[in-house]
Amino acid sequence: MDLILIPGFWLNGDSWNDVARPLRDDGFTVHTPTLAGLHSVDDDRSGVTLATQIAEVVALVDSIEAPSEVVLVGHSGGGSIIHAVVDARPDRIRRAIYVDSWPTAEGVAVNEELEAVGDEVPLPGWGEFGEADLRGLTDDLRAWFRRIAIPQPVRVARDPQRLHDPRRWAVPVTLIASTFTREELDGYRASGHPYFAEFPHLSSLTVVELPTGHWPQFTRPVELAAAIAEAARA
Q: Which domains are delineated in the chain?
């Protein structure tokens, strides 16, 4: 089974290292791509769009020969990318796993409120995040995160999601919730907010609570790997 792990904003593929290692030890083939605009702080991000990054992951899925099964994992903003990939290749995806994220609906942007500088969105100061986001993120982890952070291409944050194939709803979904509970998610879904418009259509939804902050790949990597492995094999 092939797992494709897509990082959230400001992170490259190496940010999954502490999660990928136990998954590989568990027998999975793990891919941790670094998407366009996130290889270096010096990258030209002017032409990088949400569609650009989605196309990269679609190409990776297409490169994996059948009958190998493909499971997509997306953290935070990476959840929007994997949902679009499910939409593009519903017949190839065994399951989609959203880490402190959920399927982003048609027409919804990942985060239009993040402050941009030209063509990029730098990692904000810690005061811009909620208390729940920062749980478990020690001073040392915060300093390390800031050292490795790469500005996010602004269009990845602001471009609207575009979806086309209703067969995406048949692909099983697992949410690994690290800053919200199952009960809170039920409240979000009942709110009618456009962010949650995909939920009523999902044929299979499993919620796994992993209480910590918004970056469980840093604060609880072993537990996150175990949750991903269990979901992938479900």
A: 2-233 (3.40.50.1820)
